[in-house]
C-alpha cells in the first residue's frame, strides 16, 4: 500500500461526506491507499457518514477519540497507518481527481525520507469569495511582505522548494517512516503553529526538503466571514508563546520594538480609519483594515498566553 490519508474531523459530517466522496474518485487504484478518519469527539452524525462509506470500501479505518485537537488526532491516526507515504488532510479539504497521483509522482521523483510534497490549496469553486477570504490567502498584500494567515501560495510562484513556513497540513505528504519518528506536538491543542512547529523541527532535525507541486490541487470548502477573525487571531497569539518557548530564535513573540509598533497601528483610531477607507472605497481597499484588525486580536491572544507561558 502506497498512501495512508489521515483525515481529522470535528462536527463536520456533511462536509466530511463530500471529502470522502472525492477521495473515492481518485485516479489511482483504490487498493493503493487507505483512508483513516479520526473523529475528534464529534457530537453530530459523523459516525453514520463513515459507516456508510465503510460498507462500500474496505480501505477505510475509523477512529474515535475525545476532543483533543488536530495534532493529537493526527498522531492517533498515524499509529494505524500502513502506507509508505502519509497524506495529511482535513475534513473540509476536497481533493481533485489527480490529487493522490500528483503526490505520488513527486515522491517517486524524490524518494529520500526527508522529502515532503506540498500541493496547492484554493477556495472551493462553489464558494462566493468575499474580501476577507481573498485577504486570508494573500500573505503579501501589505508591502509585499505581510497579509492574511491562511495561505501565502503567491510567494511560491515559480519555485521548486518551500520552507518550513509552508508546512500546510491541508495539503502535504511525507514518508511514514519520518512521521513515525517525529510526531505533532500535543501541546498545541488550539488553532495556530502546530504545523509550523513540526515543519521547523523537521527542518532542524533532518533538513526537510519540501517540494512544491502546484498540480496536486485540493479545494478548501469553508466559507469564512470577518466574524471569525477575532477567535482565530487570539488563538494564534496565545499559541505563539508555546512555539516561542521552544524556538525563541523564530521571533514568533514580537520583541519590544515590534510589539510597540503593532500596538500603535492597532489602536482604535487606526482601526476606525481603516474601516472608513474600506467603506469609502466600496470595499475595494480592505487589506489594511483586516491587517490592523488582525493585530489587535493577535495581541489580545498574546497577552493571555503570556500569563500562562511566560
Number of domains: 2
The major pleated sheet works out as: 9 strands, mixed
Mean pLDDT: 95
CATH architectural name of the largest domain: Alpha-Beta Complex
Global Rg: 20 Å
- Helix vs. strand class: alpha/beta
CATH topology of the largest domain: Spore Coat Polysaccharide Biosynthesis Protein SpsA, Chain A
Q: What is the assigned CATH homologous superfamily of the largest domain?
A: Spore Coat Polysaccharide Biosynthesis Protein SpsA, Chain A
SS summary, helix count? 11
Secondary-structure element pattern, one letter each: EHEHEHEEHEHEEHHEHHHH
Write down how many β-strands occur, each being a DSSP E stretch of 2 or more residues.
Answer: 9
What distance lies between the first and last C-alpha atoms, to the nearest angstrom? Answer: 45 Å
Question: Into which percent range does the helicity of residues fall?
Answer: 40-55%
For the record, what CATH class of the largest domain applies?
Alpha Beta
Q: What is the overall shape?
A: globular
Strand content: 15-25%
Low-confidence runs of at least 5 consecutive residues: none
Amino acid at each position: 500500500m502506497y498512501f495512508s490519508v489521515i483525515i481529522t474531523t470535528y462536527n463536520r459530517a456533511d462536509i466530511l461526506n463530500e471529502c470522502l466522496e472525492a477521495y473515492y474518485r481518485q485516479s489511482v487504484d483504490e487498493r493503493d491507499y487507505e483512508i483513516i478518519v479520526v473523529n475528534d469527539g464529534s457530537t453530530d452524525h459523523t459516525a453514520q457518514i463513515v459507516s456508510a462509506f465503510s460498507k462500500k470500501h474496505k480501505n477505510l479505518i475509523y477512529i474515535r477519540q475525545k476532543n483533543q485537537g488536530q495534532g493529537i488526532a493526527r498522531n492517533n491516526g498515524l499509529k494505524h497507518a500502513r502506507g509508505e507515504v502519509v497524506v495529511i488532510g482535513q475534513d473540509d479539504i476536497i481533493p481533485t481527481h489527480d490529487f493522490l497521483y500528483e503526490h505520488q509522482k513527486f515522491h517517486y521523483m524524490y524518494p529520500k525520507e526527508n522529502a515532503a510534497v506540498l500541493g496547492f490549496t484554493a477556495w472551493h469553486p462553489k464558494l462566493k469569495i468575499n474580501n476577507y477570504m481573498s485577504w486570508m490567502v494573500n500573505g503579501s498584500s501589505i508591502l509585499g511582505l505581510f497579509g492574511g494567515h491562511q495561505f501565502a501560495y503567491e510567494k511560491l510562484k515559480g519555485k521548486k522548494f518551500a520552507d518550513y513556513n509552508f508546512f500546510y497540513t491541508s495539503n502535504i505528504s511525507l514518508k511514514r517512516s519520518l512521521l513515525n519518528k517525529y510526531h505533532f506536538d500535543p501541546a498545541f491543542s488550539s488553532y495556530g503553529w502546530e504545523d509550523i512547529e513540526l515543519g521547523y523541527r523537521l527542518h532542524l532535525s533532518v533538513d526537510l526538503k519540501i517540494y512544491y507541486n502546484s498540480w496536486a490541487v485540493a479545494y478548501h470548502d469553508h466559507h469564512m466571514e470577518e466574524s471569525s477573525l477575532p477567535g482565530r487571531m487570539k488563538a494564534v497569539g496565545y499559541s505563539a508563546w508555546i512555539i516561542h518557548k521552544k524556538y525563541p530564535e523564530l521571533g514568533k513573540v514580537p520583541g519590544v520594538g515590534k510589539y510597540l509598533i503593532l500596538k500603535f497601528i492597532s489602536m482604535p483610531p487606526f482601526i476606525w480609519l481603516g474601516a472608513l477607507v474600506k467603506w469609502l472605497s466600496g470595499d475595494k481597499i480592505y487589506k489594511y483594515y483586516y491587517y490592523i484588525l488582525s493585530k489587535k486580536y493577535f495581541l489580545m491572544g498574546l497577552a493571555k498566553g503570556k500569563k500562562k507561558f511566560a
